[in-house]
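task queued by scheduler; priority normal; single chain, no ligands, no partner chains; default sampling; output format set to structure tokens
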Amino acid sequence: MNVAHILMTLLLASAGGVVCWWLQTPLPWMIGAMTVVTAAALYGLPVRSLHPLRMAMVTILGVMLGSSFTPALFSQLGAWPLPLSGLLVYCAATLGAGVLYFRYVAGVDVTTSFFSAAPGGLNEMTIVGTQMGGDERIISLTHAVRILIAVFTIPIWFRIFMDYSPAARAAANVGMLEVPVLELAKLGACAVIGGILGKRLRLPAWQVLGPMIASAAAHMTGLTAARPPIELISAAQVVMGVGVGCRFAGTRLSEVRTAILHAMVFAGITIAIAVLSATVLHQLTGLPIAALVLAYAPGGLAEMSLVALALSIDIAFVATHHAFRLLIVLAITPPIFRRLRRTKT
């Protein structure tokens, strides 16, 4: 562990966050950190992410997501079955389009094509795909670019075309000194207990889902109504941005330019499928199209939930759909891949 490189990375990320905050961009701390660190990584600077710090911040995000599950949420659940079921179609369409694109346009092998296209978590798809014989660099790069494009373009789109105003949300932020110590302790207990249970139950993205479920239980039962303070959420955004940017560490743009271009094209395809799915479901259910777009957007659970927070869109709705998508992908990809591999052999 090189402390100097970690500190340099955090300073660069924080500087990027300050600039984006000054420019009043949506999700400034995450987009600023992500942009600067990604550029530094591709330029060849020794950017580094501190894994324990990232895990701690992801846990905080899980607690924040769970705090959106209030008792009033029960009255809204009746409108969710159709969009949740629609994720099956979305996952199948994304997987099919991705395999065809990577296999016949990008020209990569079947295994790499499959796990690059699977709309699951970056870590899970990279690990499983590598174990199955896929190209680790292409798989991880494709998912990193997918998340990068989704996080960077979707908030900007909302800002330009949907009258997003970050200043309008300032009053909703709660500072560290405004949260009672007892409530902070309850939130901390949700983070610790949820993290332990999530890991033991082997939940996908357990660092987020475990604390989210524990926090949701605490908030829906009335044990607490507190939310993590804005200082912690902003710090978590910076660390999440660092995590995405550092995925490109050791990757020279000249060496992987073609792979990045293919990943960008596929990210555009997945965003198009998400927008089409959201439009159809909006017509069928009457649910807000903004919430549906974020629920189906091809970003990570934590990243898209942060976007929902920044845009004041129903976080519980978005987080639930991304968690369900992860469960679907982990359930269907192994049997589908085994059948596909038998067909090709």
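post-processing summary
- The mean pLDDT is 84.
- The chain has 14 helices and no strands.
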